[in-house]
Amino acid sequence: MSSKPIGLVAHSEKAGAAALVKALSVEFEKSGRALKFEGKTAGLVGQSTGVSTAELGRTCDLLVVLGGDGTILKVLHDVGKNIKPIFGINLGSLGFLTCVNSSAYLKAVDSIIAKNYVLSRRTLLAVEIQRKGKIVSEFTGLNDAVISRGARSRLIRLRTRIDNSPLTEYNADGLIIATATGSTAYSLSSGGPILMPDLGAFVITPICPHVLTNRTVIVSDSSEIEISPCPNQDDIFLTVDGHEPHPIHSGETVRICKSALTLPLAMLPGISFSEILRQKLKWSGSAV
Asked: Where in the chain is the domain with CATH 2.60.200.30?
C-alpha cells in the first residue's frame, strides 16, 4: 500500500461538491487510505487543514479531482511540473477528461484502492512567446493554445510556419493549436476534427477564416509550430487552456511544440475512448 496520501480537489462552487467530498472521505477512511485536501475543498467538510494544489502535487501520488474538464485543466496549471496521475469525477454533464460521474463514486473508490485504473498518458503543449530569439513567457497546456483578437471586431492576420517552413497566412478571428486531447474542445466547436488521444498529432484550426481555403491542418506532434502577427497588427492575445490571456506584441512569435511532460489521466479499465465519445456526444446510432 502506498505511504503517500491521495490528494482531493473539488470545484467548491459546483452543486453536490460538498456531499461528494464527505462521501469520498468516509469511503477512503474505511479503506485506510489517507486523504489530503486542497484548501477550499477542506472547507467543504469543515476542515482547516487544507493545502495548496501545488503542495498536493509535491506530496501525493494521485489527485482525485471533482468537477469537470475545466477543473482538471486548472489543477494541471496549479501543480506546475509536479504532475501526478489525475482521476476525474464529473460533477457536470459533459466532460472528456473525467473518469466517472458522481453517481458512480463507489466504483471510483474501488478502482483507486485496487489500483486497476488505466493511465492514458496525454501529450502536453510547450508554449513560448519569443522576442528577438529570447523567451519572454512560457506555458504548459493540455488542450490548446489560442491566438485571437481582442475586443475589437476585426480579423487578424497570422503568419504560420511548420518546422521553419511557411504554411500560410491566416486571415481570421484567430487560430487554435490543439493536442489530440484538446481536439474535442474549442477546436471541435470551430469545425476541427476529433482525434483519438493516442494519435501523435496537433490540430491547427482557424477561427472563422475569411478565406474558405484556410482549413484545419493536422501535423505531427514532433513538429514545431511558429505563429507571428503580420505587420500593423495589434490587440492580439495568447490563451493557453482558457487561462489568463497574454498580449502578443509586434515582433513577437508564439512557438509551440510537444512538451517533455505528459499528463497521466486515469481511465476505468475496459472503457474505450470510442465509448466515451458515444456517451458525451450522445451518438446512439443512425441519425437518419
From this structure: 124-260
Give 131-187 pLDDT, tens digit per residue: 998 999 999 999 999 999 877 778 999 999 999 999 999 999 999 999 999 999 999
The segment(s) of the chain belonging to CATH 3.40.50.10330 are 6-117+268-280
Specify the CATH class of 124-260 in words: mainly beta
What does the pLDDT look like over 15-29, one tens digit per residue?
999 999 999 999 999
pLDDT band at 212 (very low <50, low <70, confident <90, very high): confident
Cα–Cα distance between 211 and 279 in angstroms, integer?
35
Q: CATH assignment of 6-117+268-280?
A: 3.40.50.10330
Q: What pLDDT is attached to residue 273? A: 86
| pLDDT the model gives residue 288 | 56
Spatial distance between the Cα atoms of 72 and 67, rounded to a whole number of angstroms: 8
Whether the predicted pLDDT of 57 surpasses 80: yes
Q: Which residues carry out catalysis?
A: 69
In 93-106, which positions are buried (b, 16+ CB within 10 angstroms) versus exposed (e)?
eebbbbbbbbeebe
Q: How many CB atoms lie within 10 A of CB 196?
A: 13
Sequence-separated (6 or more) residues with CB below 8 Å from residue 57:
7, 63, 78, 79, 80, 82, 83, 84
